[in-house]
Each structure stands twice: as C-alpha cells, then as structure tokens.
Specification:
The protein is mainly α and 217 residues long. The chain has 2 domains: 59 residues, Arc Repressor Mutant, subunit A (Orthogonal Bundle); 139 residues, Tetracycline Repressor, domain 2. Helices cover 62% and strands 0% of the residues. The N terminus and C terminus are likely disordered.
Length: 217
C-alpha cells in the first residue's frame, strides 16, 4: 500500500547521513523509497536525496539502478532470514517450526510488498537465488535445518533436499499471494485474524509435515 501525504513529505525530506557505512545507508534509503512509492520512484538521485548526501555519492557504490536494486533485494533476503531465524527460535517442536517459518514468510511478504516483489524479480533469471548463500544465518540454511529436524527430507540426498526446499518456498509463496485476496476477509475474521488464518492454512498442508505425514496426523 502506498504511503499518503505526510509520508510523502517525510520521504522527500533528506535524512542527513552522518557516519558509518554509506553503501548500507543508501540501500536502506532505497528500501524506504521502494515501499513508499514503488520501483519507478527508485533512482540513484532519489536515494542520495533520501540519505542526505550529494547526487554523485551513490555512484561510488552502484554503477546504475540495476546494481542498487540488487543491493536492496539482498537486504530483503537478509531481513527475511532474520524473521525466519526468530520463527525457529519461537518453538522447539520440529513440525511447528516449519509452520512458524511459513507464517514468518507470509508476514514478511505482507509487510514489505514492494521489497518482496523486487527480491523475486531480481532473482528469477539467475542460476541461484540470493537465499542460496550457504551461510549460517541465511534463510536457506535456516529452512534446510528445519526440514532436516522435521524429517521432511533425507539430508544425505541432495535431490530430495532440493525438492523439499522448493516445495516449502513455493507453498509459502502461494499462501502469501492468496492471503491478499479480499474474498477471504470473512474467513480471516472468523478464525481470529490474518495470522491465525495463515497458520491454519499451513497446518493443513501436508508438505509442512514430516515425510508422508501431515501436521494433523
């Protein structure tokens, strides 16, 4: 949802950059612009104005808008990884962990719609998605570990793990898309709100349970 009048004026007011990592400050400025006004409003000049630096400053870090979008998308993957990490920490039950990861994913997508779109737009034509980085804190690693603990795939079978991974991301992506449908507003209210609605959906999807078993079995 786009921001209105006061937010528009706020985003147009430069936020002076004082110290620290200028590249990261520019990425955060880009994220603010992206969520407030959409990708069409995002430019190197716009992020310079938002960060309170000279129009030339961003060119020391990004050669063009494409590189800036890549950096903003990468920031999104890190933020999603943080939310998934928090979801894993919230429960000790392996099956419930998979459900909570799904809920966290949908909450992120719903809270950051423009960033979410850019993350996938910038990744769809690449040989590996940014979440593929096999670091300890990446979204990919967190999901892989949760899959293994829930017995949803054989960790020694690379193909089985890959298929399980894709199934989980696809499920979460689909639920995130469907949750936006106004048709379901009445059902959301009946079950206790959007988060309860999303959690109920994941608990009814067998792929989120152990191998060959749904969460309700």
């Amino acid at each position: 949802m786009r921001e209105t009048g006061s937010a528009l004026r706020q985003a147009e007011t430069p936020k002076p950059y004082h110290h620290g990592n200028l590249s990261h400050a520019l990425v955060l400025a880009g994220r603010r612009i992206l969520e407030a006004f959409g990708p069409a409003a995002l430019s190197l000049r716009a992020v310079a104005r938002e960060a309170g630096v000279s129009p030339a400053a961003p060119y020391h870090h990004f050669k063009d808008k494409g590189e800036l979008l890549d950096a903003v998308a990468k920031e999104g993957w890190h933020a999603l990884g943080d939310m998934i990490s928090e979801a894993r920490a919230a429960t000790t039950c392996p099956h419930e962990t998979l459900t909570e990861i799904g809920v966290a994913y949908v909450k992120f997508a719903r809270a950051n719609p423009a960033l979410y779109r850019i993350m996938y737009h910038m990744a769809c034509d690449r040989e590996s998605m940014p979440m593929d980085a096999k670091t300890d804190d990446s979204a990919w690693t967190h999901v892989a570990e949760a899959i293994t603990k829930a017995g949803a795939a054989d960790p020694h079978d690379e193909q089985d793990m890959a298929l399980a991974h894709i199934a989980l991301w696809s499920t979460a992506h689909g639920v995130a898309e469907m949750t936006a449908f106004k048709e379901f507003d009445g059902l959301k209210e009946a079950v206790g709100g959007e988060e309860a609605f999303v959690r109920a959906l994941f608990k009814r999807i067998n792929v989120w349970g152990s191998r060959g078993r749904g969460l309700n079995h």
